[in-house]
From TrEMBL:
This is ABC transporter ATP-binding protein. It comes from Amycolatopsis balhimycina DSM 5908. Residues 26-257 form the ABC transporter domain. The keyword Metal-binding does not apply. The keyword Transport applies.
Length: 325
């Protein structure tokens, strides 16, 4: 994912090419996890560039959580390699993990303790914090996620958004090089979602590498610089978000009853065109939409509707998730 963008190749060869190497915060090679007869993750090669916000996108059951758990050393791969901050996982977990904040599944917060007291318990287990530094680190983390006002309320009474933010606070008790968030906005209302996005944007601005999983393309589009798309345990696309969104030929879909005539006049005007079930698909790689419409209308073709074809990533993701959600 560092220097190349691959769609449906299943393999990113960037590190094997002569392109300049981008330092990686994490990478996997040939990663595979099998549970009984279920292949949860299958030969996944991921590159997580340092400082990127990488969205791991995929429908339910596509292997996002399992991949994240292997990256963090919570699950041992059946096959393959994982490097986190330059260290092999899970063997070097004790060295790599202090620099990584993770929000993976609801951390074990105590329902009858306040948010602050819960964080104090987590902070006590942070190898980088001295006992004297714990209270100020906890208060800074609460402040950062906007929970200072609710810090002394019981966790039990927190809204889902507040619980997620407390989880984030526990991941951010000390400065991190990398933060890993598994579906952090799942079930949140728009205000809660905005709050998580704000914190992710802040981390990015500080140079922290962020890996976030989501089953929503719009979510990834709004927050990420890079994306890796998973389907049935495989990476089917990965690369820079902007490049993936633009991949695939730009085209205009024209709904018309005069489709054959439309294809003919477009081709006469050197515009690539082909029939589709509803009309015509006109290629926009060498021309613009207004020119296509001008040619069609000028030739007397009845244009009932014209829409842009979906971009490469939208199209790919729609195909992957069709019927699954
Ligand atoms: N501990 C486990 N034991 C057995 N099967 C598992 C286990 N963990 C995951 N799986 C299976 O592996 C596949 C991938 O699951 P995973 O949770 O990684 O996907 P996901 O993309 O994170 O999905 P979701 O968005 O639903 O969390 C699924 O078929 C799941 O049922």
């Amino acid at each position: 994912m560092t220097s190349t963008t691959s769609v449906e190749s299943g393999a990113d060869v960037s590190s094997e090419t002569s392109a300049p190497a981008v330092p990686l915060a994490a990478r996997t090679r040939g990663l595979r996890k099998v549970y009984g007869s279920t292949v949860a993750v299958d030969h996944v090669d991921l590159d997580i560039p340092q400082g990127a916000v990488v969205g791991m996108l995929g429908p339910n059951g596509s292997g996002k959580t399992t991949t994240i758990r292997m990256l963090l050393g919570l699950v041992r791969p059946t096959e393959g390699e994982v490097e986190l901050l330059g260290r092999p996982m899970p063997d070097a977990a004790a060295h790599a993990l202090p620099d990584v904040g993770a929000l993976v599944e609801g951390p074990g917060f105590h329902p009858f303790l306040s948010g602050r007291d819960n964080l104090l318990r987590f902070a006590a287990a942070e190898p980088r914090l001295s006992s004297a530094g714990i209270p100020s680190a906890v208060d800074a983390a609460l402040e950062r996620v906007g929970l200072t006002g609710a810090a002394r309320r019981r966790y039990k009474g927190y809204s889902l958004g507040m619980k997620q933010r407390l989880g984030l606070a526990s991941a951010l008790l000390v400065p991190r090089k990398m933060v890993v968030l598994d579906e952090p906005t799942n079930g949140l209302d728009p205000a809660g979602t905005r709050e998580i996005r704000r914190i992710m944007a802040e981390l990015h601005a500080e140079g922290v590498t962020v890996l976030v999983s989501s089953h929503l393309l719009a979510e990834v589009e709004a927050t990420c610089t890079h994306v890796a798309v998973l389907q049935a345990g495989n990476v089917v696309a990965q690369g820079e978000l902007a490049e993936l969104l633009e991949s695939g030929n730009a085209a205009l879909l024209v709904r018309t009853p005069d489709a054959e005539q439309a294809v003919e006049v477009l081709r006469e005007n050197r515009i690539g065109a082909r029939l589709t079930p509803d009309g015509v698909r006109a290629d926009l790689t060498v021309t613009e939409a207004p020119r296509v419409l001008q040619v069609l209308v000028g030739a007397g073709v009845a244009v009932h509707e014209a829409t842009r074809a979906r971009t490469g990533l939208e199209d790919l993701f729609a195909r992957l998730t069709e019927g699954s959600e």
